[in-house]
Design goal:
The protein is of the alpha/beta class. Helix content is 37%, strand content 17%.
């Protein structure tokens, strides 16, 4: 059940970086949400909604990256929830959600996700979608499947647009314990997710560890399958794109990806954030939050 305003813990809405215990931070933020379950084949998909603004507020749906969960958005949810109803799933086969019937088909997974949104907010309510990495593919596919009901689509760090970048080799971590496990997570985050190693803090490590333990879906092939391009060609909603300058899956060809998207969608609002890596919504949260609020505001009346 949702909590009333008087019962809400005080930390909601504070900058997550102001609280030192990452596990308590995540617990507090999750406690502020209302939890939903929708079908995922014969099993279930888990959602959380943060709502500080009331039923009339517009809805924005955030899709996390591969090997992720809603926790990828920990530094964005409190800011967006001040103006929006923020709906965030654990995508099928990731986080707390069960494995989908077809774990190799992004469009089939997007259909499960789109039906889940209908189940949570109803079949008539319009919404914006924002997707990070693999979540960008799902965001574009949901946008294509739901037509004009989707107000805008924002893709962040997509590896499915433009030329392939450099392969990122990650270290195996699940068999490790203690300090060795912690430092291996740090190395993997440095290789793939966060450009500035000094920004790999306790919160990033806690999120990476939780997500890794619950990751069962193989997402890279789906991100590069062409599903996002097929969706973008059918998309009726305004399109936005954000990349970090040092996005590891794109490097050294991030500018070519941006150019390819601009050629495909000349109307799109596409931006690059200097100095940031792949998980740009975490590493450069203040900049991304400002961009998202600006982009979403443009379509709030659609």
């Amino acid at each position: 059940m949702p909590m009333n305003d008087d019962a809400r813990p005080e930390p909601f809405g504070q900058d997550p970086r102001s609280r030192p215990d990452p596990h308590q931070l995540l617990t507090d933020l999750e406690a502020e949400s209302m939890r939903y379950e929708t079908p995922c084949g014969n099993d279930r998909m888990v959602w959380h909604m943060w709502n500080r603004t009331g039923r009339a507020a517009p809805v924005v749906v955030l899709f996390h990256g591969g090997a992720g969960s809603w926790r990828h958005w920990v530094r964005n949810i409190p800011v967006l929830a001040a103006r929006y109803r923020v709906l965030v799933p654990d995508l099928p086969g990731l986080g707390d959600s069960d494995f989908p019937p077809d774990g190799n088909d992004a469009e089939a997974i997007a259909a499960i996700v789109a039906a889940g949104i209908d189940g949570v907010i109803g079949e008539e309510t319009p919404y914006d979608v924002v997707g990070f990495s693999f979540g960008a593919t799902i965001a574009a596919c949901v946008g294509a499947q739901r037509g004009t009901r989707v107000r805008s689509v924002t893709i962040i760090g997509s590896s499915g647009v433009g030329p392939l970048g450099s392969a990122v080799q990650l270290l195996k971590v699940r068999h490790l314990k203690g300090e060795e496990r912690r430092e291996t997570h740090r190395e993997n985050l440095s290789r793939l997710m966060i450009a500035d190693r000094a920004k790999i803090d306790e919160l990033a490590l806690a999120i990476q560890d939780w997500n890794t333990e619950r990751s069962r879906l193989r997402t890279p092939a789906m991100s590069r399958s062409g599903a996002i391009l097929r969706a973008l060609d059918r998309l009726q909603a305004p399109l936005n794109g954000i990349w970090g300058e040092f996005d590891a899956p794109a490097n050294p060809r991030a500018p070519e990806r941006i150019a390819a998207l601009r050629e495909r969608r000349p109307d799109a609002d596409i931006r690059m954030i200097e100095g940031a890596g792949h998980w740009v919504a975490f590493e450069a949260a203040d900049t991304v939050n400002g961009m998202l609020l600006e982009m979403l505001e443009r379509t709030a009346g659609r």
